[in-house]
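Milestone M4 deliverable, item 7.
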Amino acid sequence: PNLDALAKESLFFRHFYATGNRTDRGIEALTLSLPPTPGRSLVKRPDNGDLFSIGPIFRDRGYLTEFVYTGYAYFDDMRRFFSGNGFGIVDRGDLRKDQVTFGNIYGVCDEDLYGMVLREGDKAFAAKTPFLLFALTTSNHQPFTYPQKIDIPSGTGRKGAVKYTDYALGGFLRQAREKSWFDDTIF
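Output delivered:
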């Protein structure tokens, strides 16, 4: 319901499809504007830095560019990929213990991720720096565990994970609307 509500007040593409079947393929598509490459994802290949990426395009125009991730960015070689393509890294290792309310093997929950995003946005805004934050949620990954905030028990499957993701997105957007930078931000 939160994603559907956002679509009603935003640009909405009815014929926009995923370009791959794995998270790293989405990363390729969003950062490099590429369809899935044959073989291994560019994210995991050696010599995957200094590619034509959205990171330097924004960074060279004065933006803070960061990859914000719920887990540890060394997973799937994301740290090397993002740092080699114009992004700073903010990951689970940057969180204090009191900033983690729930975690599993992949990382902290979406609410904790969105807290990271809000804090990074606030810091950039305070420094009068425009920002591009690439946030990666992992709630839709097995074991599909999340804080028990919805009516589907945690760990019972993708349906609950998707519902929790939508719940967390709704909370994030409500909090973001209170920020001074909200009106000048594209989500």
